[in-house]
Specification:
This protein is mainly beta and 77 residues long. It contains 1 helix and 5 strands, in the order βββαββ. The chain has one domain. A 5-stranded mixed β-sheet has the order 2-1-3-5-4. It is globular.
Length: 77
């Protein structure tokens, strides 16, 4: 499974999208947002990205490191 974060220029995540490994990346069509393939934070299983309750917690606690191409999610400051 590939995991993508849709985020603003500061790395604030508005949405997480998952895709099977063998499909192309989804396309972002919303103005002012970017999409980055991400790595799950240490200790967070991939299944948390498919659970709506756990996904909401991830969105509130992490942001994207926009300086890296396949970014890890990093804790919010």
């Amino acid at each position: 499974m590939r995991i993508f974060a849709i985020h603003d220029a500061s790395g604030n995540v508005s949405e997480i999208v998952t895709s099977p490994d063998d499909l192309p990346a989804p396309i972002v069509t919303r103005r002012g947002l970017a999409m980055t393939e991400i790595e799950a934070p240490a200790g967070v299983p991939d299944s948390d990205f498919e659970d709506q309750d756990k996904l909401g917690e991830l969105l509130g606690n992490y942001r994207v490191d926009v300086s890296r191409p396949k970014s890890p999610l990093i804790p919010r400051e």
